[in-house]
Amino acid sequence: MKYKSVFDIIGPIMVGPSSSHTAGAARIGRVARKLFGKQPKRAEITFYGSFAKTYKGHGSDVATVAGILDFDTSDLRLKNSLVIAEKAGMEVSLTTSEILTEHPNTARIKLSDDQATIEVVGVSIGGGKIEVLEVNGFTLQLGFDSPTMLVLHEDRFGMIAAVAKVLTQHRINVGLMEVSRHDRGSRALMAIETDAPVSVEVLEEIRQIPYVFDVSLLSLN
Amino acid sequence: MFRNVAELVELAESQGKKISQVMIEAEMEVSQRSREAIMEEMYANLDVMEKAVRRGLTEDIRSHSGLTGGDAKKLQEYMKNKPFLSGPTLLNAVSMSVAVNEVNAAMGTIVATPTAGACGIVPGTLFAVSDKLQPSREDMVNYLFAAGAIGYCIANNAFISGAAGGCQAEVGSATAMAAAAIVEMAGGTPEESAQAVAIALKNMLGLVCDPVAGLVEVPCVKRNAMGAAIATVAADMALAGIKSVIPTDEVIEAMYRIGCAMPTTLKETAQGGLAATQTGRQIEAKIFGVRLDK
């Protein structure tokens, strides 16, 4: 079942005019922001397909920037996000691409400051629901319906078992899990949707596992 | 949990429950949240809908492009001053649905039901029918759960976005959702709600998504109006005991097949239908500064 909750149908509360082009765009921006973990200095946005063709009329650009500012889909500041970003010293660049993508509503967002960079590809699939297809070159297919933990680690045996062991000890059930890597033996990304919220303590415990580089937790609700 | 409308009706009737109650209990199970938490979230949606209806009926709404706004008020004025032909509940439903969709086009706050392009129909019919039936606030929230249950079945067995299945998937789904919820609020059975879904959706089959200049304005606002009208009439027909010859889930399946067969020019790409008319193209050129011969 693609749609799990009644609130996927009656909701979200949002600023108009389009659940795919406005609310969805805002959510893709917000996922990128949450993955980056702080306000970026630079935001480079590329729109593809229908996003590229109609973003002006739907406010997809302002919505995406609003998401990058960590605003919710219903935040009235959404409309003025470009001005707010400028005042906050965030440099925004927007380009459109003619490259054909699998889904018509696709956005690529690169966030950076002097220390870090993150690149996220998201698609807006309708009714405000989104999927994240790529994080820093790792391919995924996550809907962010539940809290999602991202574990960046070295690609070696026993990593999945080590993370699963910590979750077992804390009685946290895994709803969905994906593993992606650049090359065999290089860096890999484990994405885990959990039924119960994951506490800061559990995250820290996972961070302490040998060969784990970084752990982050994402929730859009 | 239920996977389609037949299972939903079966669950409701075998347990002597309303569709809305079945939806609330399913949501509790899936989300592992309390009834209170779920009700609270829906009350918040109801509040946003109420504000959008009020804004659209009282304020001077105008979209950024200038293409839409003010029609909801116009209809209310007409109802006050002229001997109008359709009934007051029907015209109120139309006017309130237009109000919400005009607020959406003007980048105001709305609830996607199931999408933003079709966001007027469920709240518009809800507040118009409530004027007539005087339900409790809890019954109004139950209306949204009943509508949500139908939307859930359609979304999981077909589609709810114009880009995926044309406007039949968007305004069509919202119309079917509203029809079922009206029946429940008016005291009809779950089976009668299902009949209203079939009757409403049958009359939306084949509806293309052809927004002028790609904006959620023309013809979206007026399609929300007609969706509200169809939902209200379909509910009355079902309450009168009229049945759809084709079962509800088969109508939903037909909608899915039609949507799959529809060319992409008619699925929210602004390349066909009303968007491709001479006036549609002129509007697009004016708003986006694009050439007419593209």
Oligomeric form: heterodimer
Number of strands of chain B: 1
Helix content of chain A: 25-40%
Regions with little confidence, pLDDT below 50 for 5+ residues of chain A: none
Radius of gyration of chain A: 17 Å
Tell me the β content of chain B.
under 5%
Biggest contact: A-B, 40 and 58 residues
Which runs of chain B of at least 5 residues are low in confidence (pLDDT < 50)?
none
Question: What do you see in this structure?
Answer:
Chain A: It catalyses: L-serine = pyruvate + NH4(+). Chain A is 29% helix and 34% strand. Chain A is built from six helices and eleven strands. Chain A has a six-stranded mixed β-sheet. In chain A, strands 9-10-8-11 form a four-stranded antiparallel β-sheet, with helices on both faces. In chain A, strand 6 and strand 7 form a beta hairpin. In chain A, helix 1 packs parallel to helix 3. The longest helix of chain A is centred in the first third of the chain and has 18 residues. Chain A is globular and about 50 Å long. By secondary structure, chain B is mainly α. Chain B is built from 13 helices and one strand; from the N terminus they run αααααβαααααααα. In chain B, helix 3 packs across helix 5, helix 9 packs antiparallel against helix 10 and helix 10 runs parallel beside helix 12. The N and C termini of chain B lie far apart (49 Å). The interface between A and B is large, with 40 and 58 residues. Strand 1 of chain A pairs antiparallel with strand 1 of chain B, so a sheet runs across the interface.
Brief sketch in words of this structure:
Chain A: Belongs to the iron-sulfur dependent L-serine dehydratase family. The complex is a heterodimer of chains A (221) and B (294). Chain A is α+β, with helices and mostly antiparallel strands.
